[in-house]
Hints:
This protein has helices at residues 30-39, 90-99, 193-201, 209-223, 244-253, 278-284, 313-331, and strands at 4-8, 20-27, 43-46, 52-54, 58-65, 70-75, 79-85, 124-125, 128-129, 134-141, 147-151, 172-182, 231-235, 241-243, 260-263, 272-275, 291-292, 295-297, 304-307, 340-342. It is of the alpha+beta class.
Amino acid sequence: MNIQQNISLKPYNTFGIDVTASRFVSVDSFYSLQEILTQEKDVFLLSGGSNMLLTKNINKLVVHINSKGISIDRENENDVHITVNAGEDWHDFVLWCISQNYGGLENLSLIPGHVGTSPIQNIGAYGVEIKDVITKVEGIDISTTKRVEFSNADCAFGYRNSIFKNELKGKVVITSVSFKLSKKQHQLNTSYGAIEQELAAKNIINPTIKEVSDAVIFIRQSKLPDPKKIGNSGSFFKNPVISSKQFKKLQDKYPNIPFYKIAAANKKDTPFSYKIPAGWLIETAGFKGKRFGDCGVHEKQALVLVNYNNASGADVYKLAKKIQETILATFEITLDIEVNVIE
Ligand code: EPU
């Protein structure tokens, strides 16, 4: 196993934060990962690095999960069951599925990161979440180094949430993810406003999965910064859910407030709760497009914090806290951070 010393993690996190790993190893198979975990008890696991904010040097062994491979487990004329190793790039996998005419992931095009970390935050976009197509997640229990398996239900998926962010945080490393995708009569999800508009603009009435994917790619490219050009981790915060009482109060003050009406978050607040786009709150509070030193709030989507080049993780975290404080003071809403802040 090739363990390197003092490696910059800047190329390994999409925020482009320059911290150093005292030791670093890249693993490309289940068994080499198992071997490392048997030898080393305190490791820092790194995959696509697309949902983390590193705020300090890592003084332990950083294990970069880089196992590749896609296999078809079984198929019939309607569906295909596929298992993908954790180190595969998410978007490359989505494009491969589209080239094979396998449907289900087209709305999740162009999301940065690796396949193995996609279940942790239940990645979602344009009305689809990865939980809709996952059949199984496999991993290694870090304390015993034994293989473990989770059904979809075991993963306890929620909005940008799963068991891997809660009870199993730091306890399991995901090694592969299995999906069930359609081979025909694809269930397209094109009702999201921006997709509808994009397809209509192109006069597409019965889109193929490729056309839906192209529309999603176009929308994302027009709103979200490309991490290869400007460091970022996508949405930095979750969209908050508030009670109907609080929502009505806000709507009186801000008649144009955007919202998604959803089933009540708790039984005390019947019958509905309201999810508010955090991007709107942050824009309304005046942060959109503002730069603070080398970090800032993206000019086209206020939910995304960006590193223009040399911001430290602490700089970005300081800005995030300032935004949280302002949103709380202005709207009485607590914004939860979505990315994994490594302190
Ligand atoms: N909005 C603003 N100002 C902004 C941004 C948004 O007013 O700067 C308002 C607009 O009214 C807009 C609404 O917010 O209509 C919703 O915006 P958008 O469609 O961009 O979606 P979002 O709720 O801000 C979520 C996800 C994104 C995902 C999009 C599309 C979260 C935390 N974010 O953003 O996910 O791509 O929906 O489905 O749920 C990610 O998680 O990294 C991510 C990019």
